[in-house]
From TrEMBL:
Alphabetically ordered keywords of this record: DNA-binding
Pfam families: SSB
Name of this chain's protein: Single-stranded DNA-binding protein
Record-linked PROSITE patterns: SSB
Protein origin, superkingdom: Bacteria
Entry's Gene Ontology molecular function annotations: single-stranded DNA binding
Amino acid sequence: MWGQILQIGHIGEPEVRTNGNGKTYVRFGINMAKKVGDDPMWLNCILGGRFAEVMKDRLKRGQLVFVEGELSFRKADNGTVYTNLMVDTCRILRDPRSAGAAGDGDEGVEFPF
């Protein structure tokens, strides 16, 4: 089964890892809450390969990003099923640290993550 997922949201703290073969991965969560006051709902995202090498220094906590990719499901030994988005496309839409320079009115907004 194959399905493409599109999501826009603010990212949590990205984590860069390298596996035994030397391949780099970037893992981060996207907050899918509709409003600032809502409880956070997180989607786990994974970037891999050359794209991860490029994006690892650009992704920062709190950025608004657009991601596109395929859902991946993994069942752990204890029966828990983990859902990840294997990211094909990741675009940074807005960086909260540059909001004051852009003048888009978000200077006083505090991000909940």
